[in-house]
Amino acid sequence: MSKIIETNVLIIGSGPAGYTAAIYAARANLQPHLVLGLETGGQLSTTTDVENYPGFADIIQGPWLMEQMKIQAEKVGTVIHNEIIVDVNFQTKPYLATTDSGIQFKSKTIIISTGAQARWLGIDSEEKFKGHGISACATCDGFFFKDKEVVVIGGGNTAVEEALYLTNFASEVTLIHRRDSLRSDKILQNRLLKSPKIKILWNKKVIEFFGSKNPISLEKIILEDTINHKHSELPVSGVFIAIGHNPATSLFVNKLNMDKENYIITKPDSTETSIEGVFAAGDVKDKIYRQAITAAGMGCMAALEAEKYLAELD
Predict the structure, then answer these.
(1) Residue 243 to residues 10, 158, 289: CA-CA distances in angstroms?
(2) Which residue from 8, 223, 232, 263 has the fewest beta carbons nearer than 10 Å?
């Protein structure tokens, strides 16, 4: 017999958005339940140094920050489940969500905060240097590469924007693209080409990362020419992978309105989705800012909107 849990608010996914939603919902006496999901703490759980989260003058660690949010959510009354939601049904009220172990949640509202994952190159040595020279967020980590030579990999808007942003810190920025033309908007391309700090390597792809082991530090990359397949080396201090993100929304395909990249669409100035009482917060709906602080802010919004929805429902 499946275990059935009835609740006012079910939060799917952890991370800054989920934990903040839980804190606000619990303080409103809504007795929320939060399902951690596959990646507890979201992207911050794999982020080392965090220097831009308000309230901390010194550098803090991403996993520590997520653990503190989790503790705070539990302390104010959130019930946290180390489960994975594998199915949702928005056709019934209350809404139904089922975990991989068979627990069924019947909830009057649902807050989706399943986040997004950066796309990586998939090279074995890439994993070794993540957080030690390899990043997927220039806004988060660009400051650590002041007066150093860095590389941005990609050819779309995100890659060009990251490269332009990094000129505020780096002594030189090299954009590496596997083709001979960029996919980004022309206005961004013009800004890129005019920047004296940026150079472009066309028809190149990274095939290997090298660096020191103790401490772990990236020192150079190996490139392969996509036309003649010749190899070359490039000394670098940092590499920013900018080939896109994948929102964790496969669970909601054909159940909620999404854009062409499968980010959940919410109403203007709101976190409410195409189904009333179902809200989305954080990177699962935000492909522009993708910051811990903006995700936390949206988590707060979602909880407040859920509280208002429940009040009107009653």
Answers:
(1) 32, 7, 16
(2) 232
Closest listed residue to residue 243, CA positions, set 125, 154, 161, 151: 154
Q: Count of H helices and E strands in the chain?
A: 7, 19
- State yes or no: is 137 an active-site residue: yes
Joined tokens for residue 301 = 């919004």
What is the rounded CA–CA span in Å between residue 286 and residue 292? 11
Residue in 49, 58, 87, 137 annotated catalytic:
137
**Rg of the Cα trace of the chain?**
21
DSSP 43: G
47 within 8 A of 131, measured Cβ to Cβ: yes
Task: Give the start-end residues of each E strand in 73-127.
Answer: 79-81, 85-89, 95-99, 104-112, 116-118
* Catalytic residue status for 185: no
**Which residues lie across from 33 on neighbouring strands?**
10, 79
- Nearest residue to 112 (alpha-carbon basis) of 295, 269, 312: 295
Is 70 exceeded by the pLDDT of residue 48?
A: no
Whole-structure pTM value: 0.82
**What is the Cα–Cα distance from 266 to 289, expressed in whole angstroms?**
16
Q: Which residues pair with 213 in a beta bridge?
A: 216
Q: Which of 140, 283, 286, 300 is catalytic?
A: 140
User: What does residue 69 show for φ and ψ, rounded to 5 degrees?
Assistant: -65, -40
Q: Is the dihedral of CA 223, 199, 161, 48 positive or negative?
A: positive
Q: Which of 87, 141, 269, 300 is catalytic?
A: 141
Q: How far apart are CA 57 and CA 70, in angstroms?
A: 21
Q: Is the pLDDT of residue 1 over 70?
A: no
Tokens representing 277?
Answer: 């009482």
Residue 239 above 70 pLDDT?
Answer: yes
